[in-house]
User: Fold these one by one.
Assistant:
Number 1:
Amino acid sequence: MKEQPLIVNVRDLRKVYCETESPVVALDNVSFSVSKGEFIAIVGASGSGKSTLLHLLGALDTPTSGVYEILRKNIATMNDDELSIVRRTEIGFVFQVFNLIGQLSVLENVVLPLKYANVLDCRAVNRAKEALSRVGLSHRLSHLPSQLSGGEKQRVAIARALVIGPSLLLADEPTGNLDSKTTSTILELFEALHQEGHTIIVVTHDENVASRADRVITIHDGNIVEAVVEA
């Protein structure tokens, strides 16, 4: 079987916050890699460092030391413009609180990342419609977020993340605000995306979410304490 290329490569990653007199070590020499098409769950208690790791993986922050490469590009060596390009073109974000813009329609919310990427309007609209069709929301294009259920809002958020054709899909507690029935629907969607070959990293405290992943990485006090391959 042909070995898949690395999407994420993390080596000796360290993040220290020095805003107070006593520096806080949020991550301490974390190392792991993620191959194309893997579905990874990162779990840990509140304050364990998993949110800090997510911000680093999303190029929203830079490490104090160590290496984070996405598609063999070293994040630490990039300037702000280069980081912005990576975020716009290579990484799709799905958040617990959806982060939809209330005054924009469903279609307009999904088109927005493509506008930032300077995709022409007609192409952007067509791609957004395709992404919304993929998550089963073709009938909601003109609705506002306030007219949607929680599960529909999250599916819009997933469509918005997918519309750029990202190399990496990052999800931060994507089922945290959903009931159990809606959670199952969203997890089925993530599994379908995984089967299609998408590379997914989910930060979660939900064991049901983690059980769907290929591999579970547990973080405690800024260190990886366990990496389990799911049966």
Number 2:
Amino acid sequence: MELIELEDHFNTVGGQFISSAYTMQQKLQNIKAFIFDWDGVFNDGFKHSPVGSGFSEIDSAGLRLLRFAFYQTNQINAPLAIITGAENPTAKWLLEKQNGNALYQKALDKNVALEHFCNKHGLKAKEVAFVYDDVIDLPIAKQCGLSFCMGRLANPLFLRYVEENELADYITASQGNEHGVREVCELLVGLYGNYDDCLEALLERNNLYRQHKEDLQSFKTEIFEIDGTDVLIV
């Protein structure tokens, strides 16, 4: 698919490109890992008791598609992390299902989590793609190589600020409770240019896909809590 056609697809559903698809595709070549915020990104942001908030299997499937697209492009698996200001066992469950690498909980200063993640995996912030939804996430959004902000009808002034200060490359049409993660994943796979190939490999469970899944088994989910500037293993 040509980039202009890709932009048209996402503009049609209401997505907003702050960076052009061409610029995002160039940035994507340097991306080696993916970090997601949790509340308001995988869900509506409501707290539902001490067990925390949930996620959609539609978004989970999008993550699987994205990670395979990265593997198909780079012949390695990309580290995956979630950084959240709360304590959420459901986020841990999702990461374990995905063979994700790290959950950072109680991260009121998300810079601490980002620095720890990058140091642990030998990365620079510019080599990370970040998906977020609100003010507390902006310090990370400023640093990362690609940033995606969840669109939300309730905060038009915040989205104006994000746009004017170029704190995201793309603002989603979908809100967190409307599968915005899937929208970001689909866009990223479209930018890799291998969407159809990925779907066919997934359907066929071909050798490359099986190798991808086997290689993912080496990734084990670690849980960290942020205490000031300290990162504690849970």
Number 3:
Amino acid sequence: MSLEQLLTSIPPGTADESLARQVNVDRLPAHVAVIMDGNGRWAEQRQLPRVEGHRAGIDAVRDTVETAARLGIRVLTLYAFSIENWKRPASEVSTLMVLLKRYLRSELKTLLSNNIRFRVIGRTEDLAPDIQDELRLAMDRTASNTGMLFNIALNYGGRAEIVDAARRAIASGVRPEDLDEERFAGFLYTAGQPDPDLLIRTSGEMRVSNYLLWQIAYAEIYVTETLWPDFRRRHLLEAVLAYQKRERRYGGITAPAVIGSR
């Protein structure tokens, strides 16, 4: 994918086109991670049941995935369902799972036509068998695609991922003295993927919510007041442009007077 391919999907003369043309394709974040927040608030503002916010959020997922792929982002990870989300009312959890199945079935052709590879990160073994089947089908069907890698974090928790990685390391027989950060990263759900360069959170909340705790160590964080169901192409482009204006320091020295600042 390239900027030109993205521009073919944008009406000329629009604000979206103007934003897209400002993007430096040579400085794109390799991996963008998103905390999709605000579905419930969106529904409440419209005096609708919370589940209607989740339904509306599917359009934001579709727009974000297609835009990221066309722009040339290598990896996109969306936080769909956390381990803590099981505490929500059973009816809401059930609706979320139904919506997930519906999304996978309706969007599989789009993933294939856009050369997008689909993966799931999280404790998928705890999901219902029918959900596991749908996820496996989507992963199998897109496994040979060579474009953007699209991760959905499902039944996911950052602390749980680190615990699972530690267990895998122990099970593999790695000696403690041989375990360093690089080797440990190979036991994470995202093994072999670049760490997120850009973390986007919608709805204005200032927290990382147990998301990719190991991987976001040096990610640039971008928070928008936009609620997830309203998040569209222009919001992703604005986030990428904000990222490109920042100086990434990785804890290094940029001037004698600011040792260790970020």
